[in-house]
Amino acid sequence: MLKIDSEYSKGILFVRLKGNLNRRTSFKLNNFLVPAILKHKIKYLVYNLYNLDNIDNIGLNALEKGSRAISANQGLSLICEIPKTLEENFKNIKIEKTLNELTAIKKVAI
After folding, report:
1. Of 3, 12, 55, 107, which sits most exposed with the smallest number of CB within 10 A?
2. Domain chopping of the chain, boundaries
3. What gap in Å lies between CA 92 and CA 96, rounded to an integer?
4. Are the C-beta atoms of 74 and 42 separated by less than 8 Å?
5. What sections of 6-92 are H helices per DSSP?
6. Which pLDDT tens digit goes with each residue over 20-43?
7. Is the whole model's pTM more than 0.85, yes or no?
């Protein structure tokens, strides 16, 4: 099961994920996120993974799809608060990582 909590604040779309992002649930993220980014021309995206329990390669691809949509808008995507148990899964992902949402906001403001 995947729960998506999103908030648009200060020009940044914050997407907080809870549960499992995998083959069974990634469609939920893809169907929500990419159309919203393209429709509203969102330039900044921060994934907060603090409450993510599990992720597989399909889930990683779903995160990258959102990031590519942001790139199409000449924007920036960031990932923060990756759980220690999942850090190994993210070593080859091309989305920039940051410590938390506050540091992400500072990075976008530069």
Report:
1. 3
2. 2-109
3. 11
4. no
5. 26-40, 57-72
6. 999 999 999 999 999 999 999 999
7. yes
